[in-house]
Each structure stands twice: as C-alpha cells, then as structure tokens.
Amino acid sequence: MSLHYLKQAGSAVFVDRYITKAHQLIKPWNGEEIEGIGLIGAPLSKSSISHSGASFAPASIRKAFSAFSTYAVEEDIDLKDEIIHDIGDIEMVVTDIVQSQKRIEETMLELFTKNPQFFPITLGGDHSVSASVIKAFAKTKGTIGVIQFDAHHDLRNLEDGGPTNGTPFRSLLEAGAIKGENLIQIGIRNFSNSRYYFEYAKEQHVTVYTMKNVRERNIVSILEESIDKLKKKVDAIYVSVDMDVLDQAFAPGCPAIGPGGMNSQDLFDAVSYLGKESLVKGLDIVEIDPTLDVRDMTSRVAVHVILNFLKGRNI
Ligand code: CA
Asked: 244 C-alpha vs ligand 1 centroid, how far in Å?
C-alpha cells in the first residue's frame, strides 16, 4: 500500500488543512460571463526605453501567490471565498510592438463589452500596456479618472520613440481618452523627471503629488482628496500601479529602480483604501522584471498589492 504516499508532481510539498493559500483563489476562466475580478496578463516589454524583461512578470506574479495565505490578521479578514478568474495572457506579436499594443486594447475592449461586471487586474508588461487597457476602459465606462502610482510622469513626447513605457499618459491625453484634470499622479520623485514634463503636467491640469507630499502627509488623506475630486466628475476610476513608485529597497526587480521612493506599506494602505471605493473599476500592476529581481521580492509585493486591494473590498 506504499503507493498511497504518491502525490501529483509539482503540487505543494507541504499542505496544512487549516491554511488557504492565495493561489487557491485563482480559477481558470471557463469562458462564461465574468462577474468580478479577472486576472489578465499583458506580457509586453519590448516597448521599454531601457532593458526590460517585464514580459515575464505575469508568470512570476501568478507563481508568487502560492507564497501567501488568504488571511489578514490585522483586520481579521479572510479572503478565502474570493474568486479571481484567470483570463489568461494576451498573445503578443513578437516583431511588432504597436500591433501588440493594439491587441491589448482590442482584447480588453471585447472583454469590457461582453462582461460589464468584469473587474480587470492587468499584469504587465511595461507601462505602455496601461495606455492600451485604459483606452478600452474609457470607451466602455463613460468619463474616467485615473490614479497613477509612479516615480515618473510618463508624459514623454511621442515623436522621440513612439508609444514606449515613457509615454502612456501622454498618449491617453492626446487621444482624448482622459482629461488632464481627471489624471492624478502619486509618488513622482526627484531626479527621475524633467521640468519640461512637470510644466506639461501642470498645463494639462494633471494633479501631481510628489514623494515630498507622500512623506509629509498620510497617504490615505491624499487618496481621500483624490477620490473626492474625481467623484464629482467621472463615472469610473482606473488605478495604475507602476511598481517603481516604490523605493529600490522594496522593489529591486523594477527596471527603473531608484532611492527616495514610497515604502510598500504606504502602497498597501493606498490600494486597500481604493478597494473600498465602488467607483474604482480596474487595476494594473506594471514594470516588474523578474530576471532582475531578488528572490521574487517585487513579484511578492505585487501579490500583496492585489491582496490588499481585495481586503479593501471586504472592509
Ligand atoms: Ca511609469
């Protein structure tokens, strides 16, 4: 009877019957109408202006879910009954960046159109994928607002290199998908931007909270102010998390690491707050390169961003 000890290859080495692991929340999408959270990979990073293997992040983030449980002891909230539909990854065109970005927009547009209750959590990829997702979001959700966590404005001109990971919010403003007054940037930091683009942000009436604002104020008060401002003007809010908003100490796997950034707890508190807000109808996490990461630290932070967001929805 010793065959009794055999288990499926690759399954967990140790299982505790009283612990639900976060990866158990993820269920492959069965093709039926999606109601609620759906995870979707946009593995594109050839559009990066620096070396990036962010196309590997959807796989590494999914894998990192198995490192954590579903229970938030601080609030006594268990997410074990949540379902995260895994929609899959969007297939990229290996030799064509613009065509790949178009595929992301078209896929998201079809998903939003056919599934009005679908709440996407998009895993990049570099930050250029957000422009594609948000264009589809804007076409289907009415007037939209965007809250962007980022070290950089990402408002670079499109003439110097086309739609890269430095241009997504410029693309969105120029396409009329969002108005500057409905774009809020949080975590913009020193020696990572230029005056020209800060001036451009101001001209476009973009709200900019620098790292100094984040350090001197409670992050939740910044979010309260942001939601208050957007609530009067938009039908839906999209949240874009560029992981390089975090200090390099917390996110070593970002291509554009640097000091002077946010700590991970402030980001968790922020997304947890946003999870409570019913106007928030989409989230992405971008700019993690697992090939540069240390022990998957940055992918693990990404999983905590998602779990904290879900926690917020349950408060
Ligand atoms: Ca960015």
From this structure: 7
